[in-house]
C-alpha cells in the first residue's frame, strides 16, 4: 500500500513536471510580454522598460533555458524560499499573494461543492426511490436544463433578477407579494405530494400540510417584515431543534428506536440550555477557530449523550446525537448571525443593499466577527447559487444511477427478505454502497475545482486564482500563469490519487497496487 | 403516466410484492424475439420520448440556421445577413416578434424577430450564424476527439504494457493542461481564432476522458472468452480490436461522445466569453453573450436570445445522450405499463393488483 502511494506520487510528480514544461513553452508562445512596453511614447522610458522587463523575465535567452531558470526558483520551495518570478502587471513577486488568492478561491468554491454534493445526493436518492414518477421526470428535466446553462449566463441573470430585485424588495419594506406566497405553497404541495409514498389520502395530507406550513411561514415573514431584522429567538430555536431531532432520528435509527430519539431530544434540551450563556461568549472576541472548536465540542457532547443513553446499539445512538448536536449548533450560529443582519444592512458602507453582485468582501466595512460573517454570506450567495445550479446535475444523476444499480443487487433483496424495515434497507444497505463511486467522483471534482473557477471569478469580479490566470494570459505574462498552473495541476494530481485510494478503502473488492 | 411496480417506497411493508419480476422478463423476451442487437437498440431509442422530441427540435434548429442565412456563398431566405447594418426599425431596435400570451397582440414575426443591436445588426441572422459555427465545432469535435479517444484508448487497453504506460501518462499530462491556454496560444501563435481553429484545437485536446473510458472497456473485454476464441482461431490484433471488441464497446463510446459534445459546446461558449475562443469577425453564441452581457437592463433581448439557443442545443444533446444510454444498456429494464403486463399475462389479476399501490400519476 505504502509502496503504491509512493509510486503514484512519483508518477504524479513527473506528470506535473512534464506538463509544466509544455505549458511554459505554450505561454512563451502565447504573446509578447513586451507588447505593452512598445506603447510607451518616450523612447528613453520605453527602452528602460524593455530592458528591465527583459532582465526580469530573462527574455534574452531561449524559452527552454528560461523554463529551467523558472524551475530553479520553484524548486526553492523545498527549502522554504519560493520564487515564482514577478508579474509584469504589478511588478510584484507572484509568490507574495499566492496563498491569499488560493484561500479566496477556496472560499468561493468550497461552500458551493459541499452544498451541491449534499443536495445532489438527497435529490438523487429520492429520484432513484421514485424512479419513473412525475417527480423523477421533473427533476431529470431540470437537472438537464441546469447542466445546459453556461455559468456566465446564469450569473448575469442571477445578478439582475435575484440580487437587484431582492435589494429593491428589502428597500421597499420586505413585504412578500401574494403571488409569491401562493407559488411557494403550490410548489410545497407538489413536492410533498410526490415525495411521500403510500395511499392517495396520505399523500394529499402530506402535500397539503407542506403547503400550509410553507405558505404560513412566508405569510408570517411578510406581515412581520421578518427579513428586515431576522432572527429565531429561543422559542423558534426550540421548535426547529425538536424538528431536527425527529428528522435525524427518523433517518438514522427510525422513530421506533426510543433510545436514539431520547438522545436527540436530550441534545436539543442541552442546546437550549447553553443558548443563553453562549450569547455572552459570542459577544466579544469571537473568531473562526473558536467556532470550529465549538462545533467539535458540540459533536463530542452529542456522542457522549448518545453513549450514555446507550441501548442495543450504542454507536447508532452516538451517531444520532452527534448529528443532531451539529445541526443544533448550526441553528444557534445562524440565529446569532441573523442578529447582525440589520446592523449590517444599515451600515453606511452597505446602504441598505445587502446582496452583492461583485467582489469577495465589502471595502471599508467595520465590525466584529458576525458582521464579517454576514458580509461573507452576502458576497457568496450569488456565486454559490450559480455554481450549485450547474454542478447539481451531475451529482443528482450519478447518485440516481448508482442507487438504482445497488437497489437491484441481490443483497438488497436479501435484506428485505429477512424482514428489515425499508428505512434500514435504504439507509444502511443501499445508501452506503451507492456512495462508494460518489466519493471518488467528489474527490476528483475537488481537484478540478480550483481551475474551474476562472469563469465564475471573471463574472463576479473576484480577484483570486482565476483572475491571476486570465489577466496573466491576456497580458502574455508568463509567471502568474505558471503559478496558477502549478497550484491547480498539483491539487488535481493529488486528488486523483486520493480518489483512487478512497475507492480502494471504501470498496474491499478493489485492491490497489497489484 | 407510467406505473412503477419496480420503485420501492419508504413505507413499503415486507409482505407486499415489490416487483413483478417474471412479468418483466416475459415482456422483454416477447418484445425482442427475432430482432438483432442493433434493431433492439434502435427500437429502444425511438421509444425514448425525450430523446425523440430533442432530435426533432435539434434538426429543426439546424435546418433553420442553415437555410435562413445560407451557407458560404449560397444565399438563404432570410432578409438580412449577420454583416448587414440596416437602420433600426423599432426605437432601440426592439424585437418585432410578437407571441400571444407573452404580451403580444397575436402572432407576428416581423423584420427583426429577435431585435437589433445598437449598430442595427439583425440579431436573428447573427444567432443563426452562431448556431452554424456551433455545429462546425460539434462535427469537428465529434470526428477528431472520438477518433483519437477510441484509437488511443483501444491501443492502450488492448496491448497494455509499455503502450499503456506511455499513452496513459500522455493523457495524464494533457488532462491537466488548461484548454483556455491552448486556444490562446493558437489564437496568437497561429494568428487564427476562427471557428475551425478553435474546433480543431478543442478536438485535439478533449479526447482524454473518452480514451480512459475506452481503455477501461477494452481491459475488461479482452479477458472475455470470445476474444480468446478469436485469438485461437488466428485473428490478427487489428481484427480482434475492430471486429470483436469495438462493436461491444460502441455503447460506451456513443453515449460518452454525446456527453462530450454537450460539454464541448459549453467549453467553446465559455472560451469565447473569456475572449480566448472564436473572435470577431467570426460569430459564436458565446461571443454574442459576452458582447451583450452589459446590455441586460437596456436591451435584454440581445443577451437572452443567444443564451436560449445555447440552452436548447445543449439540452437536446443531453436528452439524446440519455436516450442512447438507455437504448445501449443491456441491464436496462423497461418499466412495463399495466396494459403491456395484461397483454403478456392474459387476464392475470396479480399484475394489476400490485401495480396501483405504487402507481404515480403525480402532476409535478
Give me the Rg of chain A, rounded: 27 Å
| Largest sheet composition of chain B | none
The helix/strand class of chain B is mainly alpha
User: Ranges of chain B with pLDDT <50 over ≥5 residues?
Assistant: 1-20, 347-364
Strand content of chain A: under 5%
Q: Provide the β-strand percentage band of chain B.
A: under 5%
Order of helices and strands of chain B: HHHHHHHHHHHHHHH
In angstroms, what separates the terminal alpha carbons of chain A?
Answer: 10 Å
- CATH domain class name of chain B: Mainly Alpha
**CATH evolutionary superfamily of chain B:** MetI-like
Query: How many strands in all of chain A?
Result: 0
* Morphology call of chain B: globular
Percent helix range of chain B: 55-70%
Q: What's the number of structural domains of chain B? A: 1
The percent of residues in helical segments of chain A reads over 70%
List keywords for this structure.
heterodimer, A: 514 residues, 76% helix, B: MetI-like fold, 15 helices, 62% helix, disordered N terminus, disordered C terminus
Task: Write up what this structure looks like.
- The complex is a heterodimer of chains A (514) and B (364).
- With 514 residues, chain A is an all-alpha fold.
- Chain A is built from 20 helices and no strands.
- Chain A is globular.
- Chain A starts with a helix and ends in an 8-residue tail after the last helix.
- Chain B has one domain (45-328): MetI-like fold (Orthogonal Bundle), CATH 1.10.3720.
- Chain B has 15 helices and no strands.
- In chain B, helix 2 packs antiparallel against helix 13 (300-328), helix 3 (49-68) crosses helix 4 and helix 5 (161-175) runs antiparallel to helix 8.
- The radius of gyration of chain B is 26 Å and the shape is globular.
- The interface between A and B is large, with 65 and 59 residues.
Amino acid at each position: 500500500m505504502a509502496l503504491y502511494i509512493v509510486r503514484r506520487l512519483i508518477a504524479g510528480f513527473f506528470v506535473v513536471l512534464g506538463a509544466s514544461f509544455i505549458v511554459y513553452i505554450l505561454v512563451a508562445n502565447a504573446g509578447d510580454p513586451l507588447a505593452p512596453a512598445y506603447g510607451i511614447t518616450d523612447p528613453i522610458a520605453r527602452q528602460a522598460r524593455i530592458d528591465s522587463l527583459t532582465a526580469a523575465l530573462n527574455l534574452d535567452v531561449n524559452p527552454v533555458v528560461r523554463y529551467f531558470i523558472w524551475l530553479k526558483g520553484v524548486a526553492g520551495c523545498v527549502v522554504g524560499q519560493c520564487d515564482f518570478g514577478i508579474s509584469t502587471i504589478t511588478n510584484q513577486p507572484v509568490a507574495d499573494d499566492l496563498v491569499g488568492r488560493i484561500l479566496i478561491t477556496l472560499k468561493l468554491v468550497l461552500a458551493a461543492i459541499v452544498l451541491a454534493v449534499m443536495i445532489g445526493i438527497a435529490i438523487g436518492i429520492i429520484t432513484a426511490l421514485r424512479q419513473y414518477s412525475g417527480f423523477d421526470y421533473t427533476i431529470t428535466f431540470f437537472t438537464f436544463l441546469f447542466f445546459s446553462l453556461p455559468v456566465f449566463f446564469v450569473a448575469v441573470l442571477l445578478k439582475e433578477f435575484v440580487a437587484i430585485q431582492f435589494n429593491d424588495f428589502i428597500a421597499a419594506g420586505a413585504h412578500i407579494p401574494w403571488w409569491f406566497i401562493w407559488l411557494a405553497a403550490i410548489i410545497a404541495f407538489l413536492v410533498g405530494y410526490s415525495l411521500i409514498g403510500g395511499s392517495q389520502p396520505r399523500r394529499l395530507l402530506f402535500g397539503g400540510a407542506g403547503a400550509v406550513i410553507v405558505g404560513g411561514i412566508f405569510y408570517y415573514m411578510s406581515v412581520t417584515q421578518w427579513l428586515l431584522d431576522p432572527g429565531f429567538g429561543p422559542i423558534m430555536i426550540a421548535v426547529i431543534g425538536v424538528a431536527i431531532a425527529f428528522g435525524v432520528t427518523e433517518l438514522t435509527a427510525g422513530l421506533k428506536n426510543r433510545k436514539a430519539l431520547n438522545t436527540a431530544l436530550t441534545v436539543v434540551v442541552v442546546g437550549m440550555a447553553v443558548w443563553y450563556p453562549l450569547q455572552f461568549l459570542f459577544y466579544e472576541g469571537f473568531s473562526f477557530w473558536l467556532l470550529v472548536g465549538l462545533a467539535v465540542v458540540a459533536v463530542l457532547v452529542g456522542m457522549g449523550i448518545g453513549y450514555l443513553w446507550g441501548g442495543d446499539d450504542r454507536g447508532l445512538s452516538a451517531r444520532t446525537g452527534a448529528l443532531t448536536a451539529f445541526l443544533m449548533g448550526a441553528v444557534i450560529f445562524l440565529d446569532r448571525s441573523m442578529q447582525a443582519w440589520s446592523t449590517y444592512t444599515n451600515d453606511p458602507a452597505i446602504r441598505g443593499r445587502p446582496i452583492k453582485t461583485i467582489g469577495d468582501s465589502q471595502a471599508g466595512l467595520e465590525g466584529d466577527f458576525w458582521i464579517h460573517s454576514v458580509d461573507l454570506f452576502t458576497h457568496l450567495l450569488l456565486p454559490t447559487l450559480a455554481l450549485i445550479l450547474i454542478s447539481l446535475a451531475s451529482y443528482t444523476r450519478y447518485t440516481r444511477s448508482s442507487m438504482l444499480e445497488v437497489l437491484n443487487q441481490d443483497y438488497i433483496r436479501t435484506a428485505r427478505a429477512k424482514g428489515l424495515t425499508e428505512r434500514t434497507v435504504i439507509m444502511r444497505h443501499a445508501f452506503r454502497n451507492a456512495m462508494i463511486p460518489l466519493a471518488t467522483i467528489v474527490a476528483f471534482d475537488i481537484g478540478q475545482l480550483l481551475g474551474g473557477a476562472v469563469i465564475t471569478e471573471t463574472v463576479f469580479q473576484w480577484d483570486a486564482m482565476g483572475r491571476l490566470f486570465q489577466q496573466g494570459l491576456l497580458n502574455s505574462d508568463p509567471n502568474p500563469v505558471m503559478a496558477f498552473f502549478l497550484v491547480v495541476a498539483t491539487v488535481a494530481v493529488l486528488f486523483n490519487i486520493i480518489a483512487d485510494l478512497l475507492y480502494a478503502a471504501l470498496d474491499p473488492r478493489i485492491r490497489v497496487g497489484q | 403516466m407510467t406505473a412503477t411496480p419496480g420503485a420501492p417506497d419508504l413505507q413499503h411493508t415486507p409482505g407486499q410484492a415489490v416487483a413483478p419480476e417474471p412479468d418483466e422478463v416475459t415482456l422483454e423476451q416477447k418484445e425482442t424475439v427475432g430482432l438483432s442487437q442493433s434493431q433492439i437498440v434502435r427500437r429502444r431509442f425511438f421509444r425514448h420520448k425525450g430523446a425523440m422530441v430533442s432530435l426533432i427540435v435539434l434538426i429543426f434548429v439546424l435546418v433553420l440556421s442553415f437555410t435562413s442565412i445560407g451557407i458560404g456563398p449560397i444565399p438563404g431566405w432570410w432578409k438580412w445577413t449577420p454583416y448587414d447594418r440596416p437602420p433600426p426599425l423599432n426605437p432601440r431596435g426592439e424585437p418585432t416578434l410578437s407571441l400571444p400570451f407573452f404580451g403580444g397582440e397575436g402572432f407576428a414575426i416581423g423584420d427583426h424577430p429577435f431585435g437589433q443591436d445598437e449598430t442595427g445588426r439583425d440579431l436573428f441572422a447573427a444567432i443563426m450564424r452562431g448556431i452554424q459555427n456551433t455545429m462546425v465545432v460539434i462535427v469537428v469535435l465529434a470526428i477528431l476527439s472520438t477518433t483519437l479517444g477510441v484509437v488511443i484508448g483501444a491501443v492502450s487497453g488492448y496491448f497494455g504494457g509499455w503502450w499503456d504506460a506511455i499513452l496513459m501518462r500522455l493523457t495524464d499530462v494533457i488532462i491537466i493542461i488548461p484548454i483556455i491556454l491552448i486556444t490562446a496560444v493558437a489564437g496568437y501563435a497561429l494568428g487564427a481564432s476562427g471557428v475551425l481553429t478553435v474546433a480543431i484545437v478543442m478536438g485535439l485536446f478533449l479526447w482524454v476522458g473518452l480514451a480512459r473510458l475506452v481503455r477501461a472497456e477494452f481491459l475488461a473485454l479482452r479477458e472475455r472468452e470470445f476474444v480468446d476464441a478469436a485469438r485461437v482461431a488466428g485473428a490478427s490484433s487489428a481484427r480482434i480490436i475492430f471486429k470483436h471488441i469495438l462493436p461491444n464497446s460502441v455503447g460506451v463510446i456513443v453515449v460518452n461522445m454525446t456527453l462530450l459534445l454537450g460539454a464541448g459546446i459549453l467549453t467553446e461558449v465559455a472560451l469565447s466569453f473569456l475572449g480566448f475562443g472564436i473572435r470577431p469577425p467570426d460569430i459564436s453564441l458565446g461571443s454574442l453573450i459576452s458582447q451583450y452581457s452589459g446590455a441586460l437592463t437596456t436591451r435584454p433581448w440581445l443577451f437572452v436570445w443567444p443564451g436560449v439557443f445555447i440552452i436548447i442545443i445543449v439540452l437536446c444533446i443531453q436528452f439524446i445522450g440519455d436516450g442512447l444510454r438507455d437504448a445501449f444498456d443491456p441491464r436496462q429494464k423497461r418499466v412495463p405499463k399495466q396494459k403491456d403486463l395484461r397483454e403478456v399475462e392474459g387476464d392475470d389479476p396479480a399484475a394489476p393488483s400490485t401495480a396501483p399501490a405504487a402507481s404515480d400519476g403525480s402532476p409535478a
